[in-house]
Design brief:
The chain has 233 residues and is of the alpha/beta class. Helix content is 51%, strand content 15%. It is built from nine helices and eight strands. Bound molecules: 2'-deoxycytidine-5'-monophosphate (DC).
Length: 233
């Protein structure tokens, strides 16, 4: 039997989205990148001119906005559309502005519980590859396969820089991306509620020296091993 849900956690730009999307496609599962929800809340807060440091206002916003993830409506490199209160924010949630504010927003316990409740409801439908920071630890701790995908911060910054340049965005130098990533790592890992860490039963994969295909092959082998173990009498 295949795992009904696959949880993939890890730091920014460790390759979670690429792996998650490829596995979902291969298995015919839905792919859900939960980071877009925290990004959409952050985008909406900045749009409304809210003070990011004002926890109560941000939490109220998180509890009230409608975030939807839908099949890609444009052929511009997107994997899906992210719609926030009816507005297509797919690329708007990827700007350095949002990147700079998303970690503090996602550290607020009220924001996390609003998002995690929605994510859990979606995840429990099964046939799902869910990607984030706390999927294996908080959102779906019962997921039968949990992957924690890591890579050195320098390699992750290099990947993010390359991704930006490929999209025609040359505005942020590598050094700046590296510094911002270190800041985000520190906040994501040290927050009190649902910090970034592997679940006790997660399989940890370091992708620093691996290309995309090698990571996909590693996880595919894990799935096959799990399947054959479960099918043994
Ligand atoms: O994966 P990402 O870079 O799109 O995530 C954006 C931010 O949201 C990141 O700072 C960590 C946070 N996040 C989280 O706290 N929990 C999740 N399940 C997903 C993302």
């Amino acid at each position: 039997m295949r795992p009904t849900t696959i949880a993939i956690d890890g730091p920014a730009a460790s390759g979670k989205s690429t792996l998650g999307a490829a596995l979902a496609e291969h298995l015919g599962y839905l792919y859900f990148d939960t980071g877009v929800m925290y990004r959409a809340v952050t985008w909406a807060a900045l749009e409304r001119g809210l003070d990011i440091a004002a926890e109560a206002g941000i939490t109220r916003l998180a509890e009230s906005i409608q975030i939807d993830v839908e099949p890609a409506s444009k052929d511009d490199g997107r994997q899906y559309d992210v719609i926030c209160d009816g507005v297509d924010v797919t690329w708007a949630i990827r700007t350095p502005h949002v990147e700079a504010a998303v970690s503090p927003v996602s550290a607020y316990p009220g924001v996390r519980s609003a998002m995690a409740a929605q994510q859990r409801r979606i995840g429990l439908r099964g046939q799902m590859v869910m990607v984030g920071r706390d999927i294996g630890t908080v959102v779906l701790p019962e997921a039968p396969l949990k992957i924690y995908l890591d890579a050195s911060v320098e390699e992750r910054a290099r990947r993010r820089h390359l991704e930006n340049v490929t999209r025609g965005n040359h505005s942020q130098p590598y050094e700046e991306i590296l510094a911002a990533m270190k800041r985000r790592d520190a906040i994501d890992s040290s927050r009190v509620t649902a910090p970034l860490k592997p679940a006790p039963d997660a399989v940890i994969i370091d992708s620093t020296q691996l290309d995309v295909q090698q990571v996909i092959d590693t996880v595919s082998r894990l799935i096959n091993t799990q399947c054959s173990m479960k099918n043994k009498p």
